[in-house]
Amino acid sequence: MQLTGIHHLTAITADAAGNNRFYTDTLGLRRVKKTVNQDDTSAYHLFFADGAGTPGTDITFFDWPAPRERRGTHSISRTGLRVSGDSLDWWAARLSDLGVSTGRIETLDGRASLDLEDPEGQRLRLVAAPEPAGQPWDQSPVPAPHQIHGLGPITISVPELAPTQAVLTQVMNMAKVRDYASPDGQGQVHVFQMGEGGAAAELHVAVQPGLPAAQQGAGGVHHVAFRVPDTAALTEWTNRVRGFRVPNSGEVERFYFRSLYFREPGGNLFELATDGPGFDVDEPRDTMGQGLSLPPFLEPRRAAIEAGLKPLD
After folding, report:
1. pTM above the 0.70 mark?
2. CA distance readout (Å), 292 to 24, 118, 148, 151
3. Before 277, cis peptide (omega within 30)?
4. Which of 3, 58, 112, 300 could share a disulfide with 8, CB 3.0–4.6 Å?
5. CB contact at 8 A, 153 and 206
6. Is 158 helix (H, G, I), strand (E, B) or coil?
7. Over the chain, what is the mean pLDDT?
8. C-alpha span between 236 and 211 (Å, rounded)
């Protein structure tokens, strides 16, 4: 049994309209789904991805009126976004022109990288590692050769390695392949890969016992999800997680995919999610993400839900 890579990452915003502008207008991603948090329908759940909403390309946001994240360990601390190898200079110039503060282009773990933050402090990293290639979005303000291909790697911070490593290797069948010094000067980063590996299938674990515990909030990450191909595979993984006596959610139907949730020992929330049925299950691919989509069990409450949401566009 192998996970096949990163599925999505879900973060927190306290400014849905500003968040929507940054990820579509600045980063050039497509909003592929405008829906609500299925457990808190007062909050948007926005999905930004490549042109087709391909699994492994979407960064998503819960819109909660939360204070800013307090940074520290026990957190998902950096989100990689893959671009073509010759695109980082173009991105550095674009972000500078748009007033977005960035670091310098540097080689990190053998890959050219450019760190930046969104307006709420969400920590992002453009990584020169395009494979697998994303599907271009023809309405993006970013030219197709420079568009973001997808997620990865994802970095988490924990105070000690051994408990987290045990879950990653023994339960989740990841392989520890290398390590490198953390670029923030705090500890060592250990690289775990799924299957054949590559940036789209890597989890980087920064061991940082000197940091305080993070407090989740706007500009922080809620959870990271890993790919499984279908519901049959998810059931196998559910049985495996239960067999290791890891507390978990049981399988949860999210309509666009099916999920299993559990926490690793460092406190970070993990999700296993199926590749399908996908974001075009309830609206045409050409127009998905424009209107408010609701899963069938929420559709009878549409009027009340829409009345409680702020305009985005």
Report:
1. yes
2. 17, 24, 24, 24
3. yes
4. 58
5. no
6. strand
7. 97
8. 36
